[in-house]
Amino acid sequence: ELVPGVDVDGLIAGFRKGMKATPWDVEYKIHVDEWRAGLWHAAIVEQNLEAGDGDLMGAARQLQTKYRDVRLSHFKFLEGVEGMIGRMKGKGLQTVIITNCHHE
Predict the structure, then answer these.
(1) Which residues 6+ apart lie within 8 Å of 10 measured at CB?
(2) Which of 20, 54, 58, 59 is surrounded by the most beta carbons within 10 Å?
(3) What's the number of CA atoms in the CB half-sphere (13 Å) around residue 12?
(4) What is the pLDDT of residues 7-31, one digit of tens each?
(5) Structurally, how many domains does the chain consist of?
(6) Phi, then psi, of 46 in degrees rounded to 5
(7) Quick check: is 97 in a domain?
């Protein structure tokens, strides 16, 4: 357990609230992972938990890393797309993937 005593449902609700309000730094000064670690941190702090021997920001960064890895693990290309992009790149063409997510 990263943060002893954390209410997991409350943690997720707090993170979702932050994501809904500001999912990334609108000035693009803070990397998206660090920004979202800040959202996790705020959700932890919202529960009035003490760090104890732990590091709340470190725990928040670990939560963000796991969240990102799980989320991106579901981002799959259809068969043949990676090869097509490679061939396009080989001809000097650039590709852009448009999503509803942050650009990084």
Answers:
(1) 43, 46, 47
(2) 59
(3) 3
(4) 999 999 999 999 999 999 999 999 9
(5) 1
(6) -55, -25
(7) no
- Is position 94 within any domain? no
Which residue reads 């990397």 in tokens? 31
Q: Is residue 35 part of a domain?
A: yes
Q: Say yes or no to pLDDT of 100 above 80.
A: no
For tokens 């209410």, the residue is 7
- Per-residue pLDDT tens for 45-93? 998 776 655 688 999 999 999 999 998 888 888 999 999 999 999 999 9
Q: Is residue 33 part of a domain?
A: yes
Domain enclosing residue 58, as ranges: 8-76
